[in-house]
């Protein structure tokens, strides 16, 4: 069967789903995915629906919204989202859309508000999403509680904010507990973002991820990375030499003495956390491998903390 031919322009998304399933079933797992996975718009929409609208994604850092009323906004596909710090430090997430006429509530990337006020008709929401004011035009029978903001699933761990648009998002609490354990030495709640840069790659997201998962290209494309980075993240890698294993053991002993987490933790194919040493003689992924800042974070005393992935 020529599954690619089923992706003709006249087919609805349901046909594209069937063709996608067939291509995945028939593909050679030792090769790249068939071409439509990288350049067909309907397959991209399936990606958005089945992955990005269901999985947990990093929305930002808690230090970006340090106090009550601080917020950040992001766009997830066609969905504008607002993440805001509420009372008693709780982090909330909502669809950044007024329940009246669908106007966007917050248009800035970041900011601070006392209340969320729609700029169109001044519907006013508490920062926990409750509708407080809708004017007298709505009539005496209008119930404010029926038009609170639509919430988005949100969880916080180790200074990271995760959101999911799914009705029933996948289990992630075990991973978040491990992340919190790993991030504890850094005291992320009391950090500040000093510099932020954004890189937009003109490629399908799967190409970006495939490139990220191998370092076969590193020596030719960005050899400066290999001034400090050791590619492998496990002593069981078949390429791992005895000198590499010895280096890992020595680094682990130093981290253990300072109570710095390092043990490899995996959560299926979805998430993993591990700390591995950098190239011997280097302590940071700077161009020369030397310490990039004299001031260390949190309770950390040793600058040689390797690469936490």
Question: What report would you give on this structure?
Answer:
The structure is a single chain. With 309 residues, the protein is α+β, with helices and mostly antiparallel strands. Helices cover 22% and strands 17% of the residues. The strands form five sheets. Strands 4-3-2-5 form a four-stranded antiparallel sheet, with no helix packed on it. A three-stranded antiparallel sheet has the order 1-10-9. A three-stranded antiparallel sheet has the order 6-7-8, with no helix packed on it. It is globular. 20% of the residues are buried.
- The backbone outline, from C-alpha atoms, is globular
Strand coverage percent: 15-25%
Percentage of residues in helical conformation: 10-25%
Total beta strand runs:
14
Low confidence ranges: none
| Alpha-beta content class | alpha+beta
Compute the CA-based radius of gyration: 24 Å
| Largest sheet composition | 4 strands, antiparallel
Question: Secondary structure elements and their pairing?
Answer:
Layout: H1 13-26, H2 36-39, H3 41-52, E1 57-61, E2 70-76, E3 79-85, E4 91-95, E5 110-112, E6 116-117, E7 124-125, E8 131-133, E9 153-157, E10 160-164, H4 173-183, H5 205-212, H6 218-221, H7 242-257, E11 265-267, E12 271-273, E13 275-276, E14 307-308
């Amino acid at each position: 069967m020529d599954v690619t031919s089923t992706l003709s322009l006249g087919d609805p998304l349901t046909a594209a789903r069937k063709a996608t399933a067939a291509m995945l079933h028939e593909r050679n797992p030792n090769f790249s995915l068939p071409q439509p996975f990288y350049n067909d718009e309907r397959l991209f929409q399936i990606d958005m629906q089945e992955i990005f609208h269901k999985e947990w994604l990093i929305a930002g850092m808690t230090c970006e919204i340090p106090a009550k009323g601080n917020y950040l906004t992001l766009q997830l596909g066609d969905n504008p989202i607002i993440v805001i710090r509420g009372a008693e430090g709780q982090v909330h997430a909502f669809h950044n859309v007024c329940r009246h006429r669908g106007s966007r509530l917050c248009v800035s990337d970041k900011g601070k508000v006392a209340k969320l006020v729609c700029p169109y008709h001044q519907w006013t929401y508490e920062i926990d999403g409750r509708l407080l004011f809708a004017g007298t035009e709505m009539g005496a029978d209008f119930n404010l509680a029926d038009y609170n903001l639509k919430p988005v699933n949100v969880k916080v761990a180790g200074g990271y904010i995760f959101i999911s648009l799914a009705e029933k998002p996948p289990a992630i609490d075990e991973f978040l507990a491990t992340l919190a354990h790993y991030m504890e030495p850094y005291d992320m709640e009391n950090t500040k973002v000093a510099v932020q840069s954004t890189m937009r790659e003109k490629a399908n997201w799967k190409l970006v991820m495939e490139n990220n998962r191998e370092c076969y290209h590193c020596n030719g494309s960005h050899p400066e990375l290999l001034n400090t980075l050791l590619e492998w993240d496990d002593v069981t890698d078949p390429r791992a030499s005895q000198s590499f294993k010895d280096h890992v053991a020595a680094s682990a002993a130093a981290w253990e003495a300072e109570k710095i987490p390092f043990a490899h933790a995996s959560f299926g194919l979805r998430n993993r956390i591990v700390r591995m040493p950098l190239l011997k003689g280097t302590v940071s992924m700077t161009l020369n491998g030397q310490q990039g800042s004299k001031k260390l974070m949190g309770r950390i005393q040793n600058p040689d903390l390797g690469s936490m992935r």
